[in-house]
């Protein structure tokens, strides 16, 4: 039986038999590795850094972890989730895709510019994504801690048919998500 003894032979693994005398010093870390641990990188972000304001005209991802935006964006996401539907034509053909959108929310919560910036490659899904965000609006008023007006947001809507989404019973399409036109 042989055991690996890392770092003994010029930085590569070598093998020793258990009856061989153990080396007096097995280098676990080289000097540069020790320096990294004795001088750790900058500390993790503090609450203040997680609460910083994004610069004006920055498109902010809807899933940001920044505390200044997090609770408001959770409300926006909830409205979009409540408006989400899977287009009937896409469900019938098992079409799937991801649509990336950018949109503006005005201070009063109304929807400003909205555009597809990353197409799914399927018009039916791209059009549905736009309709979903339009249906979700208006959003709640932007809180005073957020200085942007308008607030520019980036999000992705994923259209992925699941087994539940395509089951049929009694001639009715029983989707796990609402169908367009119901």
Overall number of strands: 8
CATH topology of the largest domain: TolA/TonB C-terminal domain
Supply the CATH class of the largest domain.
Answer: Alpha Beta
> What is the distance, rounded to the nearest whole angstrom, between the alpha carbons of the first and last residues?
70 Å
Assembly context of the chains: single chain
Q: Helix/strand-derived class?
A: alpha+beta
Strand order of the largest sheet: 3-6-4-5
| Order of helix and strand elements from N to C terminus | EEHHEHHEEHEHEE
Main sheet characteristics: 4 strands, mixed
Strand content: 15-25%
Computed over alpha carbons, the radius of gyration is 27 Å
CATH architecture annotation of the largest domain: 2-Layer Sandwich
Q: How helical, in percent, are the residues?
A: 25-40%
Overall mean confidence score, pLDDT: 75
How many structural domains can be distinguished in the coordinates? 2
Could you list the spans in which at least 5 consecutive residues all have pLDDT below 50?
1-18, 20-29, 167-179
- Total count of helical runs of at least 4 residues: 6
Based on CA inertia axes, which overall geometry fits?
Answer: elongated
CATH superfamily label of the largest domain: TonB
Structure, explained:
The protein has six helices and eight strands, in the order E-E-H-H-E-H-H-E-E-H-E-H-E-E. The chain is an alpha+beta fold. It folds into two domains: 3-38, no CATH class; 52-173, TolA/TonB C-terminal domain. The strands form three sheets. It has a four-stranded mixed β-sheet with strand order 3-6-4-5, covered by helices on one side. Strands 1-2 form a two-stranded antiparallel ribbon. The radius of gyration is 27 Å and the shape is elongated.
């Amino acid at each position: 039986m042989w055991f690996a003894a890392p770092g003994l032979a010029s930085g590569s693994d070598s093998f020793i038999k258990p009856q061989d005398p153990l080396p007096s010093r097995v280098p676990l870390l080289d000097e540069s590795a020790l320096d990294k641990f004795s001088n750790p990188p900058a500390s993790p972000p503090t609450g203040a850094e997680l609460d910083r304001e994004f610069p004006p005209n920055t498109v902010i991802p809807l899933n940001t972890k920044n505390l200044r935006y997090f609770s408001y964006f959770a409300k926006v996401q909830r409205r979009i989730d409540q408006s989400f539907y899977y287009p009937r034509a896409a469900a019938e053909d098992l079409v799937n895709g991801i649509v990336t959108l950018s949109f503006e929310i005005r201070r009063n919560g109304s929807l400003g510019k909205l555009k597809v910036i990353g197409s799914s490659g399927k018009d039916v899904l791209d059009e549905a994504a736009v309709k979903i965000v339009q249906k979700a609006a208006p959003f709640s008023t932007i809180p005073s801690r957020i200085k942007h007006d308008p607030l520019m947001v980036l999000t992705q809507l994923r259209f992925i048919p699941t087994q539940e989404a395509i089951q049929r019973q009694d001639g009715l399409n029983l989707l796990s998500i609402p169908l367009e036109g119901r």
